[in-house]
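Hey, quick one: can you model this chain's 3D structure?
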Amino acid sequence: MPTVNNSKVPVPTLERLATYLRYLLDLEHDNVETISSAEVEKQTGINAAQFRKDLSYFGEFGKPGVGYNVIDLQNSISRILKIDQEQRILLIGAGNLGSALAGYPGLREHKFNLVAVFDNNYAKIGRKMWDHEILDFARVHEINAQLKARIAILAVPRNAAQSVTEELIRAGVHAILNFAPTILRVPPHVVVRNVSFVQELAVLSYHLSTEHPENSPSEAMED
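Sure thing. Here's the predicted structure for all 223 residues.
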């Protein structure tokens, strides 16, 4: 596989690669050996030409007239996304959302290893969350010096998110999945992905109103 300048790969392409990987895992579970780009389009909704273009950033895949071997393509995408090896993760925030994230079985399936859970609430520190003891966030530097995790999931209140982020960066974290409803300020070498349930629901609401105006709440109430 040729060397790729990751900075030139569009973020939407990386997002679609993750979608392809999820689809390929499902195919493996169903004992499917090969697929075509047309089948990818049918099952994922992503245009076949776009699928081929996404893969072209990283080399040549598949065989004309045969298609793509499911296991081979799955392994290639895993290597591209650097999840063919363990990626250690810290979880900050042991509330309801943190608990749901800690218990999500898909993390291990993709070699994301949650190695520590932190909080600053003394009522929670020392208690168990799933298989993890909740640790004092004040010890994040000391503990991550041993764990060497570079990814963190942020599930903390908005007013704490920025200060927590700064401590995580000082502790060696270079990538953050942010569930806090705020925009984080980080140096150029740190990557942040923001997850907003409200934002996603707002987009869905917009599509409902534009694609199916007959189903708008105001009209439904007039019936």
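One thing worth noting: The first strand starts at residue 34 and ends at 35.
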